[in-house]
Amino acid sequence: MTLSPRMPVLFVGHGSPMNVIEDNRWSQNFSALRTLVPPPKAILAVSAHWYVDGTYVTAQANPRTIHDFSGFPKALYEIEYPAPGQRQLASRIRNLLGAERATLSTEWGLDHGTWSVLRWMFPQADVPVVQVSIDRRLPPRKHFELGRAIADLRDEGVLILGSGNIVHNLRDAFQRLRTGTAGTPDWAQRFDAAVAETVTQQDTNRLVRLVADDDGPTAHPTLDHWLPLLYAVGASDRDDAVSFPIDGFDLGSLSMRSVVFTPAP
To answer: What percent of the chain has pLDDT over 70?
Structure first.
């Protein structure tokens, strides 16, 4: 891979699959994210929805579009995001993560954590995308270290994208939807604010512990939507400017905060 101007790193709160087909605040903001990054040569995506036992890297030439949800309108299942893969990049990622740890795979594809954002950012689907799984057996610090391991890709024209949610308690969100309960609970606001503060201060030690402290277990009953943030933070460095181009809550308690780590000029 040849050197390029250093790429930013993104973490995006992707929220509901309905954001793919609705013209709303979130989809409009996803579209605007493309103005914050130079055109990438390729994209490495870490999505909350490939949460398995092991670290895998998609290696097929044409990864399939995975509709990993149920109970949504037919139009959502008809959407395809035919971005190509790139086996050379997949092999490079595997080597950076450690060939003894990571495995090339053709069993997955692009799930909605990835394509629901990229469909707005790069609607032509002409940028190669490689997705990396999240090994649910690893503690948070190990995921941060894996993000560190792939950081050099930023100098090779690769956009690193983490896709999850900074607060993700679906039981609470769906209960609020059913009962029509308005407002955002204090625990969700506190955790979202704590994450924003910690990321801005680049306090990695606090960040990797945050999900286990105080409001963390309520904000994340499971870690699938939390861990993509650690990959993004791991791939950033102290010279990056930190900004939050998207914030706010959907369904009461679902944080839609996104983070951009922009390299210094």
So the answer is: 98
CB burial string 238-259: b at 16+ within 10 A, e below: eebeeeebbeebbbbbbbbbbb
Residue 161, pLDDT score: 98
Q: Which tens digit of pLDDT belongs to each residue from 40-99?
A: 999 999 999 999 999 999 999 999 999 999 889 999 999 999 999 999 999 999 999 999
Per-residue pLDDT band at 181 (split at 50, 70, 90): confident
Place of tokens 């250093």: 6
Q: Tell me the domains of the chain and their CATH numbers.
A: 9-262 (3.40.830.10)
Give alpha helix (H) positions in 80-159.
87-97, 112-121, 140-149
What percentage of the chain exceeds 90 in pLDDT?
Answer: 90
Cβ-based burial of 175 (10 A; exposed 0-12, middle 13-18, buried ≥19)? middle
Number of C-beta neighbours around residue 156 at 10 A = 17
Q: Three-class SS of residue 183? A: coil
**Cα(262)–Cα(240) distance, integer angstroms:** 5
Amino acid at 258: S
Q: What is the value of pTM for the model shown?
A: 0.96
Q: Which residues have a Cβ under 8 Å from the Cβ of 13 and sit 6 or more positions away?
A: 164, 165, 166, 246, 254, 255, 256, 257, 258
Mean pLDDT within 143-163 = 98
Half-sphere exposure at residue 162, Cβ-oriented, CA atoms within 13 angstroms: 33
- Contact predicate 3/155, CB 8 Å: yes
CB burial string 36-47: b at 16+ within 10 A, e below? ebeebbbbbbbb
Instruction: Specify the 3-state DSSP secondary structure of 116.
Output: helix
Q: Do 29 and 246 meet the contact criterion of CB atoms below 8 Å apart?
A: yes
